[in-house]
Specification:
Layout: H1 10-28, H2 35-49, H3 51-54, H4 58-64, H5 75-93, H6 109-129, H7 134-143, H8 147-168
Helix pairs in contact: 2-4, 2-5, 7-8
Amino acid sequence: MRKQSAYWNPYVAGIALGLVLLSAFVIAGRGLGASGAFSSAVTACAIAVDPGRVHQNPAYERYAGDAAGGPLRDWLVFEILGVLVGGFVSAALAGRLRLGVERGPHTRVPARLFLALGGGVLMGFGAKLARGCTSGQALTGGALLSAGSWAFMAALFAGAYAFAWFVRREWR
């Protein structure tokens, strides 16, 4: 097994992420986000099952016509595929590629997976209600100085800080 390399300096990583966001605006004409890719995938499944009903539903229709060639050709779908490939390559190069479940010493693996799935489902519903995921709201909306995005991030940090007390003991 390869020796693990140190994590990036968070300030350098933040500047790099800002440059990636700027590049996305310049090259693709839009910012970063993730939830739209999942909406495109759901729309593609709906088209495969019942194409006629897709255009009767505004939630699907918005993603059905976004890209020439179908919803899976949307920019965000390729972005998410790039995130998956990039994360894999980055972990391999840093010597951190291994199979396992990150958990605290008092949490069993099935409970951790159940809680992670539940949290992911809640974040997905929250992303639809907020009209964007954390990356879309914080990075793209924040960069565009959207008041709603700044309010979202303030609420997110406040909620995370308040809830941390309840889950901190699981990681000790």
